[in-house]
Write a structure and sequence with these properties.
Keywords: Signal. This is DUF481 domain-containing protein. It holds the Pfam family DUF481. The protein is mostly beta strands and 248 residues long. The chain has one domain: monomeric porin ompg (Porin). 10% of the residues lie in helices and 65% in strands. It contains one helix and twelve strands. The chain has a twelve-stranded antiparallel β-barrel. The N terminus is likely disordered.
Length: 248
């Protein structure tokens, strides 16, 4: 019950962000947020706890802080081999951002994941913290985020469910390689304050080349590492993707 109250409370806060932005706009000049989105169709190859290839989908939507911003992303992967399910993982994230100064923002976010092959049926993470933009130029955008997080993890039986307080330390980097191409990196470290050895780290590296204003090709490589894997699961999973991306 406490988890549901907290999750719905954060969802309510995220949903109220645009309302607060409108109220703030009544007192000061407000710029219309620029919404951008993408829909990707990918061929996925996995190794680690699963070894298969399949089709994956991902979706993203974002508006930059003005002074409020919002981002949502979701992706999924599911495969079967001769009628036997061989892979299943899903991830959805949402984050509201409020700009405080030129280089500083604050955020509140929610994330939900499912990966029974890694040992959990449901993982919910609520987090809040600050973002510092270290570099912002024509070619490079580098920011660091840090905050507190609380995780609820419903594990595959016979493993016991867990919940714990922790932290979130992240790095986001975008490098424009040319007029129509860019390299991005998202690195996140998640410590567990209850069990220090149970830390996690995720990395997502991607290179994208635009064909035109609405079509691009993207190649990505994701690493998901748990220092203490669940049960007999392996500690590291990787996902390689080759995607056709539709931008809007």
């Amino acid at each position: 019950m406490k988890r549901l109250i907290l999750i719905f409370g954060v969802i309510g806060a995220l949903g109220a962000a645009p309302i607060f932005a409108q109220e703030a706009g009544a007192e000061e000049e407000e710029k219309e947020p620029k919404w951008v989105g993408s829909l990707g169709l990918a061929w996925v190859a996995t190794s680690g706890n699963t070894d298969t290839s399949t089709i994956g989908l991902d979706f993203g939507l974002e508006s930059k802080p003005a002074p409020w911003g919002f981002s949502f992303a979701a992706r999924g992967n599911r495969a079967e081999d001769q009628g036997v399910q061989t892979a299943e993982n899903y991830l959805a994230t949402a984050r509201a951002i409020r700009k405080l100064a030129k280089r500083w923002d604050v955020y509140g976010g929610l994330a939900w994941a499912k990966d029974p092959f890694a040992g959990f049926d449901s993982q919910s993470v609520a987090s809040a913290g600050a973002i510092y933009t270290a570099v912002e130029s024509e070619r490079h955008l580098l920011s660091f985020d840090m905050g507190l997080a609380y995780t609820w993890e419903d594990r595959v039986p016979p493993n016991e469910d867990v919940d714990f307080a922790g932290g979130l330390f992240g790095l986001s980097w975008e490098w424009k390689l040319g007029a129509n191409s860019k390299l991005t990196e998202r690195l996140v470290y998640l410590p567990n304050f209850d069990v220090s050895a149970d830390w996690r780290m995720n990395s997502l590296t991607a290179i994208e080349a635009a064909v035109n204003d609405w079509l691009a090709l993207r190649f990505g490589y994701e690493i998901r590492h748990r220092n203490q894997p669940i049960g007999d699961a392996k500690s590291t999973d990787t996902t390689s993707t080759a995607s056709v991306v539709f931008n809007f």
